[in-house]
Design a protein that fits this description.
It is a single chain. With about 140 residues, the protein is an alpha+beta fold. It is about 20% helix and about 20% strand. It has a single domain, classed as Glutaredoxin (3-Layer(aba) Sandwich). The protein contains 2 helices and 7 strands, in the order βββαβββαβ. A 5-stranded mixed sheet has the order 4-3-5-6-7, covered by helices on one side. A two-stranded antiparallel ribbon has the order 1-2. A hairpin with a 5-residue loop joins strand 5 (about 75-80) and strand 6 (about 85-90). The longest helix has 15 residues, at about 95-110.
Length: about 140
């Protein structure tokens, strides 16, 4: 379940088929740092990301989950795609600079077959954001 960015209403149900890449934002990051609408920093990050990728249907799906268990490193996101290595990135915030950095990396990630972006293709500043690497789920 997640909240609608405009109204704050809770959205439920299953998401549509897995998009090329999912950015799953920890909605509880920055739990004590709420804005005037009561949203956490993680919720603001998700809403701002969703707005930025809204013009690119099918390329990226932005969703939320409760707690990626890296609370002292928030805001945290999981970038994953079918049959690709996934990555948890940390120390993000709902700023344009942070969003642009993440989306630049995701564009490079989308261009790979296995999710491994060559170091020379990393956007400046992304290296310090990696928290962990998650092997792809076998599909047999």
């Amino acid at each position: 379940m997640s909240q609608d960015c405009q109204t704050g209403a809770v959205l439920s149900g299953r998401s549509k088929a897995l998009a090329k890449t999912q950015i799953i934002v920890c909605s509880t990051c920055g739990y004590s740092d709420r804005d005037e609408r009561g949203r956490t920093r993680g919720e603001r990050l998700r809403c701002d990301l969703a707005e930025k990728v809204g013009s690119q249907p099918g390329a990226v799906e932005v969703t939320a989950t409760k707690c990626l268990m890296a609370c002292d490193k928030g805001c945290n996101v999981l970038v994953r795609s079918p049959n690709k290595v996934g990555y948890v990135l940390s120390h993000l915030d709902p700023s344009d600079e942070s969003l642009d950095l993440l989306l630049s990396y995701v564009a490079e990630y989308n261009a790979t077959d296995d999710g491994v972006v060559a170091y020379k293709r990393w956007p400046d500043g992304i290296g310090e954001k990696f928290l962990c690497r998650i092997p792809p789920t076998p599909t047999d």
